[in-house]
Fold each of these.
Amino acid sequence: QVQLVESGGGLVQPGGSLRLSCAASGGTLSNYVMAWFRQAPGKEREFVAAISWTLGGTSYADSVKGRFTISRDNRRNTVDLQINSLKPEDTAVYYCAASRAVVFVKRVSQYDYWGQGTQVTVSS
């Protein structure tokens, strides 16, 4: 059973940056497709970015390309999300998730493990 714990959220002004981190226990991240999703108030949870050791490379939602960067830290067994040039519409709870899929997947139902989320609020 994989446990995921997110950290790094907070209140930031438009144009600012944050680095979110997802720490895993009970499993090795290299065995999963790891992703970040977000859910804004009143909206469905949406895919943001994914990374896979096995598949190699990353995958991003079009809305965040060029501003968000997903990366891994093998030593710490974490997956990080660097968020730059934050906009008010980036305000959401950000979730880390792990999938046993063998290809990059973007649907909530395709992920097997979830963290509890970390709040990101972008406001002046």
Amino acid sequence: QVQLVESGGGLVQAGGSLRLSCTASGRTFSSLAMGWFRQAPGKERDFVAARAWTGGITNYADSVKGRFTFSRDNAKNTVYLQMNSLKPEDTAVYYCAAEIGGRGTMARMAYNYWGQGTQVTVSS
């Protein structure tokens, strides 16, 4: 089992920044592919960013490329999502996800473990 706890959400004005954190427990963190997804009211849960357990290239959704940055700190069992130049359309609940031995895919169904989500609201 893997437990994921997100933090760092909040209310920010358009153009502002937030950094989300997700801390994992219950399994060797370095064996986990980690991803971020988001879900706006009435919409599907969409891919944001992810990286394979082996590291390497980070996949980003086109809508966040150049604005969001994924990072991970294996020593702290934590991944981060730095969000800059935020837009009102970024408003959503953001979820952290993990897949054992995964490749950091954009496919939501690949991830076995999910956090409880953290709300991000961007005002215009």
Amino acid sequence: QVQLVESGGGSVQAGGSLRLSCAASNTRSGYVIAWFRQADEKEREGVAAIDSDGKTYYADSVKGRFTISKDYAINTVHVHLQMNSLKPEDTATYYCAGGRTTLYELDGDMYHYWGQGTQVTVSS
């Protein structure tokens, strides 16, 4: 079974940077790993995704500020989300998710495996 464990959340002032990481184990070829976020009293939002070939996709709200990447260890894929020029509206719980879906969907219902989430707080 696919397991996802996030790390790297925290608090930062507007304009600052944070790097989130997701350790994804037992993934298979064809899996897409994505980052989603959910702020209080708001719907879940897809942020960025990366497929098994390394192709990436970003939501318009983060394009040019966030970068998704990955590297490999034995039996584990580490997917990173480098977040620069952070804004207060980026404040949310960030989740790593995995599934056999298309890169450009960023639809949470298409992802079957989820991490526990990590909090990101950006103060003005």
